[in-house]
Amino acid sequence: MTFLKKSIRLFPLFLLFSFTACQTSFQSTAQTRETTFAKNAEKPKLAAITSDEIKKLLESAIEQTTVTKNYDPAYVVLAYPMGDVSSQKGVCTDVVIRAFRKAGVDLQKTVHEDMKGNFSVYPQKWNLKKPDANIDHRRVPNLQTFFTRRGKSLAITSKAENYQPGDVVAWDLDGKGMTHIGLVSNLYNDSTKRYLIIHNIGDRAQAEDRLFDWKIIGHYRYF
Description:
By secondary structure, the chain is of the alpha+beta class. The protein has helices at 3-18, 27-32, 36-39, 52-67, 92-102, 107-118, 140-149, and strands at 45-46, 168-172, 179-189, 194-200, 205-208, 215-220. Strands 1, 2, 3, 4, 5 and 6 form a 6-stranded antiparallel sheet that branches. The longest helix has 16 residues, at 3-18. The termini are far apart.
């Protein structure tokens, strides 16, 4: 088979991965790593939350750890607004999107509306000519841009106490732009003195003590 024929056969596969939501699945890591709940003899403490929005946000995030059992980065045509894939699957951004909806913010709609009027200021990594309400909000760099434009960006520090329940954190997993995103929960690990992260990094939605496992490239507080 010639190189051209091979390229034609591989092109649909390239399209699939060029449209994926988060930029990684990290499945081998997630499948072999136990959650913090299982690893630590002492279970995390549940910190009280006074904000109604953050309470709803984190109740949804914690609930997702019992529902979302799969990682699936495929491009899907969604309803608009409030469109979603099956709650049993998703990617890292879906954890954030679903939690925000419970708190009254539909990131699909708000990101799409901002991109319609300001498309050029968003990352141009996917060679799109216009916004796509099916996928734009499910991409980490777009969420980072949106939160920053809304004035929700906070300083990135190495101090765990600066990352509070309800915060959104974004990471570069490999130093080459492989991005990931998650929520700071109100589940507190008294041993390490930090809150667990609720995220989906390639296996399922789960709560883990992984705040400083990768390089933090974004820290946001929406509520």
